[in-house]
Amino acid sequence: GRIGSQLALEPNFVKEQFDILHRHCQENIQKDQHIINQLNAYACWMWHISLLSLASRPKENLLGNLDDYCVELKLLYVNDKRNSKARKDGRFIPLSDFFIKTLQNYTVFLEQIIEAYGSFFRQVFAKKKITVNDLFGKVIFSKDILPITVKEWQSRKIKLIPLSRNWVNLYMEGIFPKNMYSNWLRHFDMNFLMYAEEKEEKTALAFHLIQALYGHDQRDREAFHPHSSLIPNVYVQQARQQLQDNVKFLSIKHLERK
User: What are 113-123's pLDDT values in tens digits?
Assistant: First the structure.
């Protein structure tokens, strides 16, 4: 038997999952793939990278709007506990260099998609203009086969919908060797941030900084609150570095579209 949480995933297991995910997404975002395969694979990649890099909850419309990300300050304001009585305000998540590069790559990808398929999308979705914000964090839902002609697209009621845990779980069936529960990356992140390994020169993030990152700090003592004892600069720098190191430890590479 095993002692301890069944949700405490081993780093090697998570690395294997990302290797599988990378291979799938890398293959499906290429220009010779169906446009639905391209968009949905890249959005699915962004879902998993966001959960790993931002320690956020797997909510609908996870990526939010592109304008939410302050690349200059390397910060994102997240409020994923709006229904909680204990906490009404959100928190600032430091953006790692890996995540910023991933975000930039995704934006370039969407710009290329609009250049190639913009006029077609305007016809299919009956919009005067299609922008990056229209496609950012979205997937194309199609119940049946992949449509080819405009008539097929319209008759099958193709929908542009925001990423959600239900869609991702359905999409990932048969890709991962086993079905993963929706919060697996957030839980792995927390355990891994507390983990130190001398051989790998990995240090642990201080627990009060992890609480701030996850929105688990005490009410009226949240990071950046006037009564907080946390030093914002220490939180931002150390949390950002740890999130960057997590990705490096797992040997995750960026997607490449050739």
Answer: 999 999 999 88
